[in-house]
Amino acid sequence: MTGSELPQLLRPRALKPGDLVVIAALSGPLDAVYEPDLQQAVAVLEQMGFRVRRAPLLEAGRHRWWSAATPTEIAGEFNALLRDPEVRAIIAHDGGQTVLGYLDLIDFEAIAADPKPILGYSDISLLHLVLYARTGLVGFHADSATRGLGGYWQSAPAARRAELEKLYSTLLTGDEAIGALPAAPSWECWRAGCTEGRLIGGVINRIALVQATSFALPLECFDGAVLFWEEAGGQASHVWSYLQVLRHSGILDRISGMVVGVPDAIDGLGTADAPDASPTLSEIVLDVLGDRDIPVLGNVEFGHAGPNLPMPVGIRVGLDAHQRTLSLLEPAVRPLAMTGPVG
Questions:
Q1: What region holds the LD-carboxypeptidase N-terminal domain (predicted)?
Q2: 231-241 CB burial, b ≥16 within 10 A, e <16
């Protein structure tokens, strides 16, 4: 695939009240202990005005190794949901370690024929990247059902839950740009500057891994993009190494800005109040960036630390690191009456 063959941006159709949203096991299994969280996620989606159904593979206790089922079974169910005109959105119940196993089984033509919002993060971010590169689909890097809507959202203050529900609902049903995402005091300017560009990213290990496959994103996908990424688990040195992969691949030379999520359970990270110990995440990032003078906004609420601000892959955003603002400059979905790709 060359730069001239990059697909036009493909926005899913906006959802409307009563539309069917299916929660599916797109990667990891559902442990029986999290069944109450899943039921709570169903209640949240119903509160937002949607009908909700669980896909058949999403059965508590069902698993194959670390997955909900074999890659072939998961791909078969995913493709069936993509082809079903009644299904208007798909939300992953959780992440996992399986998406790499079925990238070659996805019905990309079904996505192009009837684009639908697909929500999730972690391993699901790999889906967003590949579907964006292959079809132009706007992917919703956002909270999953069980861990997010039924977990993180329920432990957040009531005002925060209401804010998230309104934000997600507006993003999925509205045809106006969201504008500035709600900022928090935790947001940090790691390198000042302003830029605009397409939002692209996910879990940093998945970004690095997919570039080693036949589903690697063409480097043109990163031209002028605002790269967002997060990581959970592992070592600080691993993050440094993944960033070096992005440097060697040329990605860091093409992007116009970077947004980094809240790190989660990464061993070996230092803190600002202990500067002589291990490096902080900001120090790691700036070390690899070197003299690349692009704005970097850190510690933004997306990723495994949850709950997630939605990061729609492919949408144009405005980033002002000094002012600590990130704005969605265009809608993530298209009006109900529109058909076909929309740039």
A1: 21-142
A2: bbebebebbbe
